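In response to a reviewer's request, we include the raw inputs and outputs for one of the modeled complexes. The two entities were modeled together in a single run.
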Amino acid sequence: MRFELTKEYLDALRSAIAQQDVAWMKEHVFELHHADIGGIVDELEKEEAGYVYGLLDEETQGDLLMELDEDLREYLISTFSTKEIAEQIEQMDSDDAADLISELPEEKVEEIISYMTDNDAAEDIVDLLNYDPDTAGGLMQKEYIQAQIDWPVNRCVVELRKQAEDVEKIFTIYVVDDENKLVGFLSLKSLLFANPTTKISTLYRSKNMISVKTSDDSESVAKTMEKYDLVSVPVVNLQNKLVGRITIDDVVDVIMDEADKDFQMASGISENIESSDTVWRISRARMPWLLIGLLGGVFGAQVISGFEGGISEVPALAFFIPLITAMGGNVGVQSSAIVVQSLARGTDQFGSIFKKIGKEAVVAVINGLALSAVIYGIALIFDSSTLGLVVSLSLFTVIMFAAVFGTLIPLILDKYKIDPALATGPFITTLNDVLGLFIYLTIGMIMYGI
Amino acid sequence: MRFELTKEYLDALRSAIAQQDVAWMKEHVFELHHADIGGIVDELEKEEAGYVYGLLDEETQGDLLMELDEDLREYLISTFSTKEIAEQIEQMDSDDAADLISELPEEKVEEIISYMTDNDAAEDIVDLLNYDPDTAGGLMQKEYIQAQIDWPVNRCVVELRKQAEDVEKIFTIYVVDDENKLVGFLSLKSLLFANPTTKISTLYRSKNMISVKTSDDSESVAKTMEKYDLVSVPVVNLQNKLVGRITIDDVVDVIMDEADKDFQMASGISENIESSDTVWRISRARMPWLLIGLLGGVFGAQVISGFEGGISEVPALAFFIPLITAMGGNVGVQSSAIVVQSLARGTDQFGSIFKKIGKEAVVAVINGLALSAVIYGIALIFDSSTLGLVVSLSLFTVIMFAAVFGTLIPLILDKYKIDPALATGPFITTLNDVLGLFIYLTIGMIMYGI
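The model returned the following structure tokens for the whole complex.
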């Protein structure tokens, strides 16, 4: 039932391509779901992929194009004539078509649009190109079904039949007034079971009608759809006129991209990259954080050099430098991760900052006491009881500071509308390194009486 | 149109509750979407929440219960009689009902089921309780619409009308044969526009019918629905008989939980916790990784103590210990994050391990050279050109090792079916700390000729 891509399959396909064995591909490739074909084509060399793509029917080509890797898509498009691109675009949903066009150079766009034979589709795309891609307007498609509130059911069915040609999946029928303002919705189910002469105005529901505005950002659209368990949401303009709809599959992509971005940012990667990107792009995306880490290390070196005399006298103090910095970093990252997540989820928004920090401090006291006790015992073995005291006292202090900073920094960033995911990862680690060193060496100097 | 929860609103509600002002609540609370009511109730004290909950109509109560915080839900249920719980459950979708029941003590379950008046619903729930909650069986609901392949459209509409009473959202009609085996699907749209005497067998589609098995794990269900852009997917048993369906809203929750889990694991938190959990639970979830970090620090101390003589002679060597360990950690986390993500997404599955490591190594050379050059200059200022050489040479070596280990370890974990998200975060950082120290101090000893 479901297709599984294997190495054997790919080898067989490759040799079929080499032999131009179209019959094999007809049986083993063309009958598959376009998502599977996309997965296959992405694994081929560009020339092979172009060959297979060219053999597909127009509808599948249209479904496929926006699902391919960007590099491959660029290559394929470079092999098409403007007229061919226009034909492909007419096969696509309006949101995908607009996304594709916005990737093309501007001078080509006008030419492509002029080649389109379906005037309505062309107009829809031109309209969609106006919106910022990270807003509801940029996510929405023009394929939706609407009914006028004063229609009877039988007229509605006739009108819908016309509209439904372009709309692959109908989830909800949006009900509008004579000014095209959104007033409510109607399920296909209620239409199916209704009397033909019943007026839509008695069937439709307006209570709890959820819609989004074209200018809402993608993340807030995703949150809305998730909160209200929606599979599609109507998009209205400032006058509350219905202009499009957003379906859940596009929003799932937004949610996953957002999660990826947070994960990467917490791992110290500043641009959204994939493992298939070029080494230059990957290197560049990592550099900013590494430079911050380097700077932190230099500050750390400065702190230690300030205590050079002490370390010459008690070299054992140097032993536990990595332990102190590592633990400060770990605790800081843990504390910030929880805050970052609850901010991203929008949960717990009314707890006060002081309550959160208080809670983190209690957790830090529990963990700090336990870990300090363990390390006191271990440090005794290494050197003297003085060293044990220095290390365990510093560790406890560092854990307390790290927990408080780890909680505070993402909250502050959020207050100033900076993505708090920045706070987890290298930034907090670096800050805690420098602070931890200072605490540790100061306590050391005092306890050793240097 | 959309409700926004503010502090002022909460204050007004609190005083309405104190004064038992039901009229205010009728106007300002009860008309809201149940998701909004859930958000409000979660912010109240338990007694307040229980009072508001008790005033809601049964349908809203049913919709709400599984969306509330677990603590609050437990409290509410403890205030209900067994009969009341049974009534609530009859208002819920079967998947939510089964989830609720599975949270209750076993001896209570039988009693609740016996109180249910709707026999079919009770049977559905008993059936759903058999499945592991992390599988398709555990996610699915019994509310779906099915049609027999040999029915004509008009019979189908009549039968569907009966079935549809229990099904809030119909996305697809599943078509089965006379043995209840899934053979294809039918859109409501095609039914709406079809001739009443047309047979379903000529209308339904079987090509690219995607289904999942009851035993498929939740993550694979999520991946399937995301890949094929599905809003609902039918669930079949081993005999390919239709037993349920899974809707996208439940899968969005799975996707978000999975992303949360990965993010927390990468941040060194071993259980899935929320900021509202108790301090004991939070402390416990963080302890394992902190202990690993501590152990790493102790190993690090051991490494440094092995070089004690050298550090007494050249105390400046100690200055750059935090820099070396921090950079090793940062590079390791960056490298592993990309691998972990591409593994989680299932992309790039056919690139060989060696190719991946090769690419990481090239990135590491680029970044390593750049950073080493910077640090050479800085270290010169601190001390001698020897120290500059030691630090820059070590930094380059550590970056290379960290990149290779960061790539390799998640791939190895994945090979042995261990969640590779474990590899990002403290584990890799700790390993690179110890390794980095050893490299740095060894190079130092050699260059200073100690």
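As requested, we also summarize the result in words. The mean pLDDT of chain A is 87. Chain A has 23 helices and six strands.
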